[in-house]
Amino acid sequence: MASKYDVKPRLGIRFSLPVSIFIFIGFLVISPLLLFLFLVLVSIGIQPLLALTLTLGSLLTSYINVVIAEITYYVPFNPFIDLMKIFPMPLVIQRIDKLFLEVNIGGAIIPVVTSIYLISTYLVGNMAILMAFIISLVISSIVIWQSARLIPGIGIALPTALPVLLTLILTLISTVLFHANPLAFSYSLGSLSTLIGADLLNIKKVIRTMRGYVSIGGAGVFDGIYITGLMSLILASLYKVLIL
């Protein structure tokens, strides 16, 4: 357990796969589905750049991490505990450990920026929809926070299906009751609640126990964000087709 640590801002880029290579290859295998979703989104009026970002942007940038902080830990270290009891010496030995805190572009930056755009464009204009979104965000974030687990040496892990189910249920309720835009509501809700519940609410626990490199929006959290995003696109596409 570290007795002291220092936090220093640091800016840099690191490339690493946030998921296993097999899962990453699996995502590439479903590229025809992504192309289909892209064409559907464009056909229902979504801007091509936004559609491309939602379908491929997060996946292609999921291996890029922006380093934002370097945390140095000073851990008391004494390999001669019994000897020191017999012959006390004023020598204090410390072991230095480090943690590099990163933000994943595909799993954090792109979803947050896209969510802000969707919320400001489609949700802010209606107070009832905005309040429904805020309440849904709080509920979903708390549930995900309680379900997330810190795995030493790996990071935060959570059931992949959980954010998807929460997002679909809460989006369906808001769509039926308040006629919320399903794309804006579901994508923003799934992305932000997963980031808040899995990463941000557990950041103190991560700093206390993790060493090496830890990416906000990376590792297992990326799976939840990306899959939830894909499900929101499918839901929005079906919704648009049905009402047309």
From TrEMBL:
Pfam families referenced in this protein's UniProt entry, alphabetically: DUF1614 (PF07758)
Keywords assigned by UniProt, alphabetized: Membrane, Transmembrane, Transmembrane helix
InterPro entries: DUF1614
Keyword tRNA processing attributed: no
Sequence intervals crossing the membrane: 21-44, 50-75, 99-119, 125-145, 157-178, 213-239
Keyword Transmembrane helix carried by entry: yes
Domain of life: Archaea
Protein name per UniProt: DUF1614 domain-containing protein
Organism, as annotated: Vulcanisaeta moutnovskia (strain 768-28)
